[in-house]
Amino acid sequence: QVQLVESGGGSVQAGGSQRLSCVASGRIFSRYTMGWFRQAPGKEREFVSAIHWNGRVTAYADSVKGRFSIARDNSKNTVYLQMNSLKPEDTAVYYCAADAIPGRLALARGAGSYDYWGQGTQVTVSS
């Protein structure tokens, strides 16, 4: 059984920064692409960012490109999401997710490609 535990959420003013962390257990972490998704009230869950299992390829949603940065430390089974220049529209519950297929060559952006999810961490950005 895979467990993903996010941390680092909270309240911040617009223009501020936050770093989310997600620790994984129960699987060979280094073989799986990891993703971050978010869901705002009344909206569908959306892709934010993903990092290839080898750590060398990343992807971002257009809405966060240039402001967010994803990274992973396979020695700590941890993936990070550094969020800078936060905007009120970034307010959402942020979820960490693990790809269903080990060693997948392409970065998956669809939620259906991820089979394990964390419990989510709330990020609130005030104007």
What would your notes on this structure say?
The chain is mostly beta strands and 127 residues long. The chain is 0% helix and 49% strand. The protein is built from no helices and 11 strands. The strands form 2 sheets. Strands 2, 4, 5, 6, 9, 10 and 11 form a 7-stranded mixed β-sheet that branches. Strands 1-3-8-7 form a 4-stranded antiparallel β-sheet, with no helix packed on it. Strand 5 and strand 6 form a beta hairpin. It is globular, with a radius of gyration of 13 Å. The N and C termini lie far apart (40 Å). The mean pLDDT is 94.
**End-to-end Cα distance:** 40 Å
Give the overall shape.
globular
- Specify the structural class: mainly beta
Helix content range of the residues, please? under 10%
